[in-house]
Amino acid sequence: MKIKVLFKWMAALTLLVSGALWAANSVDLTSSPEVSGTPEGSVKMPKQQGRMALNYVNQPPMVPHSVDGYQVSKNTNRCLQCHGVEHYRTTGAPRVSPTHFMDSDGKVLSNVAPRRYFCLQCHVPQTDAPPIVENTFTPSKGFGN
After folding, report:
1. Does 85 fall in a domain?
2. Beta-carbon contacts of residue 58 (< 8 Å; ≥ 6 apart)
3. Which residues of 106-123 are buried (b: 16+ CB within 10 A; e: fewer)?
4. How far is the C-alpha of 25 from the C-alpha of 141, rounded, in Å?
5. N or C terminus: fewer CB in 10 A for the chain?
6. In which residues is heme c 1 bound (predicted)?
7. Does a structural domain hold residue 97?
């Protein structure tokens, strides 16, 4: 029994040490396609246009600047470089909403909840482009243009 436990500890230690050596001698992760080439906190993206009116209650705010080239993956989120709680004061960007820190059970987390991490699923760049297909949508009363 003691030999089994000793073997498990030695295997775990071997994995830990080999992982640390691999990480220390590994490739530069900043060259990975998932990681933005923009150094964190080095860009202050100004608004490129005024905020457009929302069309319905609880509509996610639209993004008033270009997001071309933004990296949002499981490893990095370019949006949080300006809108995250660590940076919004220095960048002047709106802070991530407190609702984005709650998991599906309502538990408040210290980081953005996984279900709210991929910003561009809900927050889209605003544009005045015509609809792709005809529709009869009208904004809720008191909303819209």
Report:
1. yes
2. none
3. eeeeeebeeebbebeeee
4. 60
5. N
6. 65, 79, 82-83
7. yes
**Per-residue pLDDT tens over the stretch 41-95:** 444 444 667 778 888 888 999 898 888 888 888 888 999 999 999 999 999 889 9
- Residue of higher predicted confidence among 129 and 120: 120
- Comparing C-alpha atoms, which of 120, 65, 110 is closest to residue 92? 65
DSSP conformation letters of 6-60: HHHHHHHHHHHHHHHHHHHHS--GGGSTTS-SSPTT------SSPPPPPSSTTPP
In the annotated binding site, the residues are 65, 79, 82-83, 100, 119, 122-123
Annotated binding-site members for heme c: 65, 79, 82-83, 100, 119, 122-123
Read off the CATH number of the domain in which 71 is found: 1.10.1130.10
Q: How many domains does the chain have?
A: 1
123 located within any domain: yes
In which domain, by residue range, is 99 found? 45-127
Amino acid at 16: L
